[in-house]
Design a protein that fits this description.
Length: 677
């Protein structure tokens, strides 16, 4: 084509070049690309519905907008919304274009230079509430799917406000120097990693604000709406991330009953997290007693000279429902000897220097409500108290009762600790006739049970389009009501799954078996759903029959399996050997967590002295975001490779050879029971 313009008509697309778009004769080309040669970052429910085409010549800039019409598979379900054209220059980083629907099965975009193009569709985004057994699904024809657009508003130097349901963005005058399009996109919680601690929960939509990379000349205020029906006494804070996995807490102010606000100088991804209220105290050398503002029966007493410098300490109290203990005993007779528990108390040292550790020179006394008084339970017969501790960064609860208990009254229990962690006191029966005492594994399961919630899964298929498959994870108490509600909205559903228990933020892998499989690109990636009790947990999927992929009208039948990540099962006949393994495993995790906090940037030197080969070290460095996670990954890899030869003696010798004797000394002070792994 020359300056007069023209049209290139092909099966997958039509390219219309207006007059003056090119200044000399130019050969316009259209090449169909193998989907295996590009990376499409499809989210849940999105699917490729066209050929991927590359327009040439590559790098050409047009002086007038060129129209590209693309053909796509329009066999979508009734009620499907838009399809959208994606473009890329490098086959990996894609951008969505403003797309116009043409007649039938075509969409059109205007561009000013050549790209690689694809048409992508996505399931309509519905809003629902927030878990495992097999259920049957069927599949017949292959549909296409739709996408939602972000909220947006253009603003200039005078500023302005973008109001949406999940948030309000206030841009003051002078924050931008030219017209800028401010965008707000709700992110699927399954597409991010939230490192929630016990007691924390997601209570808002996760939103991505744009444009990325823009630095504002004045602070921009972001107000976020959240679900304020979380536990009483909770605190809400805004977290921010650049990479969807590493989060930072922002200084947050309350703005009404269900809104919080933060000031930022650039845009990222934001979420509101609820957590138990945290009290912070400064402990002087002369001693101090801390009292929780939410549970006054909880006190932490530092004797004089327990610390040799003023120390900041935080205290959180996680309340435990009496009903949770009753549900536990009703669920499994192994726990019948549990009478009641105290709340969980989480105590931490706040240090400005992450590499230094505050040493207690005298034991610190922790006071908690007596379990029987706390839960107002009447029990006749002998009992005993068990003190349990869980190190930060692990899920392993260990009994630390020993002779730590110093005073017991009808209302409180006092015990001593030499370092801080999460703590709980459990009251158990002490019957002489009890032939199955509550051992370490069952005690650990009690602690984990109290921090989990009962959930069930609902499987859904759209009436008239059985390929549209949806999974919802919901709290057990509302599952039947939720299922009937969805069936009234055009879905059909088998009975819900059985009840299981999940932690907040726990991921569940969804596997489809039989002669049914996820369609297209979805078949190449793991399907996961993340449980958040205060949010709607939903996974969209397109499925197809496997009898003959070329004949999409054939029916397929299969079933769904749900796998909690991670999941540990303990069989009763293996209890004795598992107790030994549990003690061993808990110690290993404590050692490794302590070491990675102290070694950090010296992890490669330690890896060399542990005998890890250079390729393994390079692989660990590349797949982890920071030195502490690299160190932990390296230690786990060393233990896996060496097996029984991975002993604490070998590890301490390697630390010494790497010039990290201070870490060895810290281990000996912190862990008096150091022995074989």
């Amino acid at each position: 084509m020359g300056p007069e313009g023209g049209e290139l008509r092909t099966a997958p697309c039509t390219v219309s070049v207006p007059p003056e778009a090119v200044t000399m004769e130019t050969e316009i080309t259209c090449q169909v690309i193998n989907p295996n040669d590009v990376t499409l970052p499809l989210k849940d429910g999105e699917m490729l519905v066209s050929d991927i085409i590359e327009l040439g010549p590559h790098g050409t800039t047009f002086h007038q907008p060129v129209t590209v019409q693309m053909q796509y598979n329009n066999k979508s379900s009734s009620g499907a919304t838009e399809v959208v054209v994606w473009v890329t220059d490098d086959r990996t980083q894609w951008m969505k274009l403003e797309t116009t629907k043409e007649n039938g099965n075509r969409v059109a975009v205007s561009v000013d230079h050549s790209f690689i193009f694809a048409v992508v569709s996505q399931l309509e985004q519905d809003s629902f509430t927030a878990s495992t057994k097999e259920s049957t699904i069927t599949s017949s024809t292959q549909p296409a799917l739709p996408t939602t657009s972000p909220y947006s508003r253009k603003m200039g130097p005078e500023g302005g406000e973008l109001r949406t349901t999940p948030c309000t963005v206030s841009v003051p005058p002078g924050a931008v120097t030219m017209e800028t399009e401010i965008t707000c996109q709700v992110i699927n919680p399954n597409d991010v990693t939230l490192p929630l601690k016990d007691g924390e929960m997601l209570v808002s939509d996760i939103i991505e604000l744009g444009p990325h990379g823009t630095t504002f000349h004045q602070p921009v205020t972001v107000q976020m709406q959240y679900n304020n029906k979380s536990s009483s006494g909770a605190t809400e804070v805004v977290w921010v991330t650049e990479d969807r996995s590493q989060w930072t807490e922002l200084e947050t102010s309350k703005n009404g009953e269900d809104r919080v606000a933060v000031s930022v100088d650039h845009f990222s991804i934001f979420a509101v997290i609820s957590r138990p209220k945290q009290d912070q105290f400064r402990v002087p050398i002369g001693g101090f007693t801390l009292t929780s503002s939410t549970q006054p029966a909880v006190q932490i007493s530092f004797p004089e000279q327990a610390v040799n410098t003023e120390t900041r300490v935080t205290v959180q109290v996680q309340e435990i429902r009496k009903e949770a203990v009753e549900e536990l005993k009703a669920q499994d007779e192994s726990f019948r000897s549990v009478v009641s528990t105290s709340p969980i108390v989480r105590v931490e040292i706040v240090s400005d220097d992450a590499d230094s550790e505050v040493q207690f020179h005298k034991p610190v006394t922790v006071r908690v409500p007596h379990p029987q008084h706390y839960m107002n339970i009447q029990h006749e017969g002998p009992t005993k108290l068990r003190v349990m501790s869980c190190e930060e960064g692990t899920e392993d609860w260990m009994e630390v009762t020993g002779d730590s208990i110093k005073e017991v009254t009808e209302e409180v229990v006092e015990f001593e600790v030499t370092h801080f962690s999460s703590l709980i006191v459990i009251l158990v029966k002490d019957d002489l006739g009890n032939t199955e005492p509550l051992g370490p594994i069952l005690l650990q399961q009690v602690c984990q049970w109290l921090q989990q919630l009962p959930v069930q899964f609902i499987l859904l298929q759209r009436e008239g389009n059985e390929n549209e498959f949806v999974v919802e994870c919901t709290i057990s108490g509302s599952v039947e009501e939720r299922r009937h509600e969805l069936m009234g909205e055009g879905y059909k559903s088998p009975l819900p799954s059985g009840t299981v228990r999940l932690f907040e933020g726990q991921e569940v892998e969804i596997r489809i078996s039989g002669n049914v499989a996820p369609f297209g690109m979805e078949n190449n990636r793991k399907q996961q759903i993340t449980f958040h009790s205060q949010n709607y947990n939903r996974l969209h999927m397109q499925v197809m029959a496997l009898k003959d992929v070329q004949q999409n009208s054939l029916d397929g039948k299969g079933y769904v399996e749900f796998h909690a990540l991670p999941r540990v099962e303990v069989e009763k006949h293996k209890l004795e050997s598992e107790i030994t393994r549990l003690k061993r495993s808990a110690r290993v995790e404590k050692y490794f967590y302590f070491i990675k906090e102290k070694v950090s940037t010296d992890w490669k030197n330690l890896a060399f002295h542990l005998g890890l080969p250079d390729p393994d070290i390079g692989n660990i460095a590349g797949k982890n975001p920071d030195d502490k996670s690299r160190c932990m990954d390296m230690l786990q890899e060393w233990k896996k490779k060496k097996g029984d030869a991975a002993t604490i003696e070998v590890l301490m010798e390697a630390l010494s050879e790497a010039g990290l004797q201070s870490v060895v000394d810290g281990l000996k002070k912190r862990f008096l029971d150091i022995g074989w792994f």
